[in-house]
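note to self: dont lose this again. the chain is below, predicted strucutre after it. 378 aa total, dont forget to put it in the shared folder this time
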Amino acid sequence: MQTDLRAWLGFALTPGIGPQRLHRLLATFGDPATAWGAPASALRAAGLEPRAVEAVIKARSRLDLDAVIDTMARLGISALTWEETSYPRRLKEIGDPPPVLFIRGSLLDQDEWAVAVVGTRRASAYGRQVAEAFAGDLARRGITVVSGLARGIDAIAHRAALSAGGRTLAVEACGLDLVYPPEHRQLALEIIAQGALLSEFPPGTKPQAQHFPRRNRLMSGLCLGVLVIEADEQSGALITAHWALEQDREVFAVPGSVFSPLSRGTNSLIQRGEAKLVLSVDHVLEELNLSLADVQQKARAYLPSGTGGLPIQDEEARLLRALSGDPQHVDEVAQQTGLPVAAVSGTLALLELKGLVRSAGAMRYVRTQEPYLTYVTN
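---
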């Protein structure tokens, strides 16, 4: 396992070796350790371009992977690869999930129910008030709040979730041996204690402008939906919203003053039909079919296997009738049931936690047991 971890880290630290090239290497060599140790001729035969082959050879000669592992251990940084069952399922479903996800803190099963809260770095009094109210309410309802640790709305959302006693995840655009912005070091420590810092960038990676859009795709990829609170027309929050749309996630926006430049981005999302206008957390949870998330999450603590007779809701029953032992894509299930894709995704998350369905990967699901003999719908 240590050999495989060294290889995964080696590829993560090699410029130009992204998910597609790594998939190609694993298909050829079978495992990362064999691929990492392969000679240049074998790498070329596997389909790597000359520049990529040269990058791997150089990385092997200059990287001290044992020192990287020691640094991670000292800082409490763990690494999940996309081959591990504990790798976040939703993140694995996006187009280019990071081969290695670095973590400081802990990821829990309940983090499957997550909503990203994003917005401007220059929040107005209105934006701060809205972010505190929405993020705090989400956390109190058992929803994990995801954001990017940035100044403004991001930091407000993290702090509100922490104050509410909930969980929050912060996705960084640098290695987890760093905190950016540096004034958020204490906030980062609090997040580690009550959630996790996440990054696809290995330790030692400094924040760079091109890293932030990539970071944003992970924020949306981890979540059922993205809530945009106060964003101007050039805000990075809009990048997160666009990633969410590409990933078939739901996008929500809180409207703002037509006279405020800080609301032009959010209002435009609503006007173009790219985001649903929401005025309360209830609106968000209803759209995601998570209105009972907090209740069912508490109930789940008493269900070590299966659901122990936990009732299923009408929409859950509809999905169970549509599913079978053969994997079906979320879009196909939505078409069969007539439910919105976002509602299907949220309901499948609940059913998986109840032990009634199982993810087969690539946004496909199978039914794991017959619901009609054991459960009574409400």
